[in-house]
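Before the break, one more example. Copy the sequence into your notebook; we will annotate it together after we see the structure.
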Amino acid sequence: KTAKLTKTPWPKERSQRTKAIQDALAANPVPITPTDLAKQFLRGNAGQIEDILDALCSLGLARKSRGKFTR
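Here is what the structure looks like once it is written out:
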């Protein structure tokens, strides 16, 4: 049998979404696109995720290079 990947529920509140994105970035060993990051969440929205990632970059909590983000 193949193991089924479980997706994290997409939080309703923005502060919880930000924390979920930070946790997902920390768990990824390589830079990731907002679209690929959205696939890790149930009903994840790549546009919202990119907005949060851009905010994290402006705060120095994430880095962006060639359209991919990392912690």
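The longest strand covers residues 63-65. The helical segments are 14-27, 34-38, 46-58. Try to locate both features in your own notes.
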